[in-house]
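Exercise 3.2. Students should predict the tertiary structure of the chain below and write it as structure tokens, then compare their answer with the key that follows.

Predict this chain's 3D structure.
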Amino acid sequence: MNRHNIFVLDFFISHRGASAIAPENTIASIALAKACGSRWVEVDVRFSKDRELIIFHDKNLFRITGVNSPVFTKNYKDLKNYDVGLWFNRSFEGERIPTLLDVLNFCNNNSINLNIEIKPEKGFEHSIGRKVKEIVNKFLFSQSCIMISSFDFKVLNQIEESEKVRKMILINRLPKKNFLESKFNFFQYFGLHLNIIDKKMVKYLVNLNKKVLVYTVNDPAKAKLLKSWGVTSVFTDLPKNFMYIKDN
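Answer key:
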């Protein structure tokens, strides 16, 4: 089978799950994204103190849990006791921080494809990249595909692509042309912040057979414009609002 027919991205990817209507990076958020029609979900992965791969975006626990402490100073046995649903809405009280394995199992069992964004601690770029690779290789079932992304080149250098696994470099500042060109031999997939792109940049990358993904897009009209420019996918907090764009 042609490897390029196995790995297929949808036009929209749910950002941290359906994070506009559920607490981000939780099983509840992923489940709601699926219920809204999303077949691709993005989550953030970082290390706990004891090197467990947990699903959490921020470096500090405060915004989500009210505990003013860096995530990396806590072992998972402590982190798993924090409520990460109540801050969003009382109906989500009791949601816990999942591990990457928890999320992989849920996605495998529900035919959900996963974008794993790796958030490395300084000095642990290589080790977290290697551990994510090991977990994905061991527990990825045949039903799902994986995109592994990061802003950090050292992290992505640990990832090996395959028929069902791709990697993507993330860029949040306006890149110079020589920066993009230096990455061309390493990456086919580029994740670009909405605020730095224009039609010319998208056309430049698409003409070089690169895939352009844009984050975070919550306006369907803007998403339709980006699609007309040749953007491959957009990340959104509101997957339900993007269903009608997918096939048009």
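Discussion points: The radius of gyration is 17 Å. The CA atoms of residues 20 and 237 lie 5 Å apart.
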